[in-house]
Structure formats: C-alpha cells, structure tokens
Amino acid sequence: MAESVYKVIELVGTSTESWEKAAAAAVATAGKSIRDLRIAEVVQMDLQIQEGNVVNYRAKVKLSFKYQP
Q: How many domains are there within the chain?
C-alpha cells in the first residue's frame, strides 16, 4: 500500500452566532479551493467583544488535506 502525506494549515473562522458556525465557515471556505480535506480540529475559541457585548465568535481550526505535489 502506498503511503500518504498530509499538509496541515490553520484558519480562523468567524460567526456572529456560535463557535460551531465559525468553525464550519472556516471548513466551508477552505473546501472551495482545497481538495481532499480530511480532518478539522478546533484548537482555540475566543470572542470579540464591543461595549460589553459579544459581537463575534472566532474558532481557530487546523485542517489537514492530502498533499499532492
């Protein structure tokens, strides 16, 4: 069986509604230009706050995809 190599990148997705939607936005956007996405791992979540209110949920996501030279 041939061995595979995967590349890992980090993206930050944002949403005004939830961390789940922020992570999904990162994956959906990456999927438009990257083939063979394999794994998404949320590595950090944070909030953007203005005047004491949450205005954005942010999710830092590590995405892996099959490397094809």
A: 1
Kindly report each contact of residues 49-52 with a partner whose C-beta sits within 8 Å and lies 24 or more positions away, as own/partner. Answer: none
pTM over 0.70: yes
- Identify the domain containing residue 23 by its residue range: 6-66
| 27 burial via Cβ count (<10 Å: 0-12, 13-18, 19+) | middle
Residue in 45, 43, 49 with CA at minimum distance from that of residue 58: 45
Round to whole Å and give the CA distance between 49 and 34: 32
Residue whose C-alpha is closest to residue 45's, from 60, 55, 24, 62: 60
pLDDT digits (tens, 9 = 90+) for 45-65: 999 999 999 999 999 999 999
